[in-house]
């Protein structure tokens, strides 16, 4: 059974609140919110592991996210940008569209793990999907592995 968009948004709000993410980020998913702006956390340095920005500041990234959501039915609730020797990585953190996937998703998340679609912005051919480890940092989310 598919989750409704409202059910996905409600779960996104609850997850962001549980991770103690900045209120502006989580409130974008609160029911009735008119201004639904998606945020990403950029790891600028060890001192600044999760600086928050609007995704729509980068229209190309917003299009990547829209295409991903249309293709999968998942709802992206946050993204992380990490600069690595392999390129700039934009991880799309999303709520699954299938109801039966929610329990395993929440179990993984309780251990700081999340299935992510990782877009390599430097070399798109090196993009992939898989599990990553995350943690709250500076009101945002930091990818740690």
Give the low-pLDDT segments. none
How many H/I helices? 4
Strand content: 25-35%
Gyration radius over CA: 14 Å
> Which strand order does the major sheet show?
2-1-3-4-5-6-7
Question: Separation of termini?
Answer: 32 Å
Element pattern in H and E: HHEEHEEHEEE
Shape: globular
Mean pLDDT figure? 94
SSE class: alpha+beta
Q: Give the proportion of residues in helices.
A: 25-40%
Keyphrases for this structure?
single chain, alpha+beta, 7-stranded mixed beta sheet, 145 residues, 28% helix
Describe this structure in a few short sentences.
28% of the residues lie in helices and 34% in strands.
Q: Would you mind describing this structure in some detail?
A:
It is a single chain. With 145 residues, the protein is α+β, with helices and mostly antiparallel strands. It has one domain. The protein is 28% helix and 34% strand. The chain has four helices and seven strands; from the N terminus they run H-H-E-E-H-E-E-H-E-E-E. It has helices at 5-18, 23-27, 59-72, 102-109; strands spanning 39-43, 51-54, 75-84, 87-95, 113-120, 128-137, 140-143. The protein is globular.
Q: Can you lay out the helices and strands and say which pair or pack?
A:
Blueprint: H1 5-18, H2 23-27, E1 39-43, E2 51-54, H3 59-72, E3 75-84, E4 87-95, H4 102-109, E5 113-120, E6 128-137, E7 140-143
Parallel strand pairs: 1-3
Antiparallel strand pairs: 1-2, 3-4, 4-5, 5-6, 6-7
